[in-house]
Amino acid sequence: MEFLDLPNRTLKNRLYGITSIADFGTPIGELRNILNDFHQFIDIAKIGIGCAYVTPNIEEKIKLYKEYNIKPYFGGTLFEKCYYQQRLDEYVSKLKILGIEWIEVSNGTLDISLKERLTLINKLKKEFYVLGEVGSKDAEKDLPISEWKDEINLLLDAGCKYVITEGRDSGTAGIYDRNGKVKDKLIEEMTKNVDINRVIFEAPTPKNQMFFINSFGANVNLGNVKLQDALVLEAQRRGLRSETFYLEDIQCKSPL
Fold first, then answer.
1. Start-end of H helices in the chain
2. Is 118 helix (H, G, I), strand (E, B) or coil?
3. How many helices (H) and strands (E) does the chain have?
4. What is the CATH number of the domain that holds 91?
5. Is the pTM of this model over 0.90?
6. Residue 162 — φ and ψ, nearest 5°?
7. Which domain range does residue 222 map to?
8. Peptide bond preceding 13: is omega within 30 degrees of 0, i.e. cis?
9. CA–CA separation, 185 vs 104, rounded Å?
């Protein structure tokens, strides 16, 4: 069914216009059914929080994502737990055994200095594709706008493939206030002189997603998307929802 004029979408293996879903324990059978129908809309799969450490069938899950050309990685909380317990070497070894090619370096829970994160990225980028993250899971911590921008650029320069802006799976921290409202002034200033095609905005709800789609276009990178929302998000990107009905046919808008 291709007779409407809709915004053009990048196709897999896309470098931007990425949808990164969050898997918080989806059963294998359910996952297989969802991916069979909607895998073309999903690029990256985060096995969220520390779930990967206690998932009984983690090898099967990783294999399944790879079969559908989706890049799996483990959430930053597990990285931080390993960092805290000084077990990063064991963590890295396990990722290699499992065939995981992506790693997140975050400081959402721990206060890991930017200098230390840059050092880790420079080391890890030799063996992995690195995802950096900016922002805290603590709604009380309010990073100055200038620091958001500086950190994003420094993480990208250090070798991160993408930088994730913290939003939590609840959408109540980082780039959102505690009530779940996007900090639009932060987004406006933060994205000036930043390559937004290499920024993944955590947007766990359709309301969050539509804000970024209307601000930056159909091919904005979005993360922490619920697995079951992959199809709805794709419809939103194509202007097939009331809130994105008049979306322009553009690849990616300039910052706000």
1. 28-38, 51-54, 58-67, 76-84, 88-98, 114-124, 145-158, 184-190, 206-216, 230-237
2. helix
3. 10, 8
4. 3.20.20.70
5. yes
6. -145, 155
7. 19-244
8. yes
9. 27
